[in-house]
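User: I'm writing a short report section on ligand binding and want a predicted complex to refer to. Could you take this sequence and zinc ion and write out the structure as tokens? A short remark afterwards would be nice.
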Amino acid sequence: MRIVYTAASVIDAQLVLDKLHSAGIESIMTGQQLVGAIGELPANLGPAVQIIDNEDFLLARSIIEDYEECLQESGENWICENCSEPQQGNFHQCWNCGQMKIDPRAETPEIK
Ligand SMILES: [Zn+2]
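Assistant: Sure. The structure tokens for the complex follow:
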């Protein structure tokens, strides 16, 4: 067992977990039960993702690095065009109604 990722939120941890699972890496989320008690605990006790087999560490880290890069590229929060729900920047699809994010860059392609 080894921690490969310390998440900002349970949703964040779950996204990483899904990516590791789809790559066939056995992994679990830990610490999510503490989230409800924030205020009584140090801030660094948020959810974390742990791999079962330490041999998967390098592969897991490379998947997580890709994920983090992806977060930085699309970090701005957005509002769903369909149902007006606020969305986190790392979602490409509305969690509420399934509407895809409309990328402003896609509508005005830069011609080089
Ligand atoms: Zn929506």
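A remark for your report: The beta strands are 2-6, 27-30, 48-51, 78-79, 86-87. Residues 5 and 38 are 19 Å apart (CA to CA).
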